[in-house]
Description:
Elements: H1 2-27, H2 32-37, E1 41-49, E2 52-57, E3 63-66, H3 68-74, E4 75-87, E5 90-101, E6 119-121, E7 123-139, E8 142-163, E9 167-189, E10 194-205, E11 207-220, E12 225-237, E13 243-258
Antiparallel strand pairs: 1-4, 1-13, 2-3, 2-13, 4-5, 5-7, 6-8, 7-8, 8-9, 9-10, 10-11, 11-12, 12-13
Amino acid sequence: MNRIRTLLAIALMAASLTFSLTASAAEVDQPAEEAAASEWKKSFELYFWLPRIYINTADDSDYFKLTLSTILRTLNFMTMIDFNAQKDKWSMGADMIYIHLTDKIKKNNPHPIVDDPAAHVGMRAFISTFGGNYQFFDKGRTELHALAGVRYLYIRLPVEFDIDGVEKFGVDLGGHNWDGVIGMRGKTTFSDSLYMDYYADLGTGQSRNTYQVKLGGGYRFKYFTATIGVRYLRWNFGSSNDLDNLRVIGPYVGAKWLF
């Protein structure tokens, strides 16, 4: 527990230091021409992740697999956004995902949210990764950024079981999770319109470990940039959680605006 608290504290301090340095960089006195040339560059992306979700409980007694068709069929609400602001070599960003799945299907439906026709599962989850970045490489068409920050997860899985139509009972799985993360992101530009971007992080805290990889690209149109890629996100939880692991993997599409 002390190791986890120490690592989480280090990640939080690293993110706070990055934010402080970023803010300080913005406040340095510059000539008007230089200040205009180094203004904040911001981006806002609205995207739609199309994943498969795999969940194991801590005692391995239950395994849930949510396919894309299941997610679309039981989707109640979903929003996914990414924001980034950069000035010179320093930047800050936040990625936020909210998804709410609800299963209102009766037990006699042949396609419930899980394989067991007597089990009904809903899901409400909020995921956010936020922190600071420093650009340490910029040569030709490629740039690389080191990053430090925090990942937050809130997930609730209300599960209702129906035993032979006679007895019903339910359990509520999930909870809150905080982890410090470090990693790297980068971008390679092929032309004025086409680029590829990549991202990887890993961390620990209340989880044993968590990590994420993302590979994508974008094409710039006149008023926005179309984005596409694939993303993998995983948690391996500690003994304090009633879930053992959570995996989210799949492609995404989106639209990004620069301002």
